[in-house]
Design goal:
By secondary structure, the protein is mostly helical. The chain has six helices and two strands. The chain is elongated and about 150 Å long.
């Protein structure tokens, strides 16, 4: 029987098997390809290998930011400037002469708060004579005139109710309305006196329900042009 000497013979009983195997390993053939790692190819990373570094979660701000105040530091409150129709600072009025009426400031600011029609007359005169540069005096004149107008309107309504009650319901209803009207007049008189004292002392006195009417009178009543 002819002996098979082919290189593909892999019979382990063949005495030449070991020699041919060594020769085949040492001599590369066309079927063998060598793969070289490309320069741009990223190295293989195993799943169990942690990343070398993590990206930073801190991104520096692009613009300057002022530091936040600490817990023990107090934040300064914004200052509010008084408007042209406000009563200004809470300081007692001075004795300087007011232009247009030639009266001291403390007198000019308190005269409009005199009860009854005399105070309303002083308030109207000051609004027509005092220039707008005296904003503090004009404010109190406009506010006092607004208060006088509100009291007169309420008194007029009570008189109408008193007349209707007297004719329709008799004496008891009429007396009740008259009693209410008397108490209202006393309360408003006391309020005028308290307002006068507060303004004389320089305390802040701002009647919020009459703010719109006060602003309207101060803006619409133009002072007389001084020569």
């Amino acid at each position: 029987m002819e002996e098979n000497r082919s290189k593909y013979n892999t019979d382990p009983l063949d005495p030449e098997f070991a020699r041919r195997t060594d020769e085949m390993r040492s001599q590369p053939t066309g079927e063998t390809r060598v793969h070289n790692n490309s320069v741009t190819e990223a190295p293989t990373r195993h799943l169990y290998e942690p990343p070398s570094s993590y990206p930073s979660v801190y991104a520096p701000p692009t613009t300057y930011q002022a530091p936040l105040p600490r817990a023990h530091e107090r934040v300064a409150a914004p200052t509010v400037q008084p408007s042209s129709y406000s009563n200004g600072a809470s300081t007692p009025p001075s004795s300087r002469t007011i232009k247009g009426i030639s009266l001291p400031e403390n007198v000019a600011m308190t005269l409009p708060y005199i009860p009854f029609f005399i105070g309303a007359a002083f308030a109207a005169i000051e609004l027509f004579l005092v220039p707008r540069t005296e904003s503090r005096t004009r404010f109190h004149a406009a506010q006092a005139l607004s208060l006088h107008l509100a009291v007169m309107a309420a008194g007029f309504i009570l008189r109408i109710v008193h007349g209707v009650a007297s004719g329709a319901f008799g004496g008891f209803s009429s007396r009740m309305v008259w009693l209410f009207w008397s108490m209202f007049s006393l309360a408003t008189t006391i309020y005028f006196v308290v307002s006068l004292i507060r303004v004389w002392k320089g305390e802040e006195h701002h009647i919020e329900p009459l703010a719109d009417l006060t602003r309207f009178l101060n803006e619409k009543l133009e002072p007389r042009k001084l020569k």
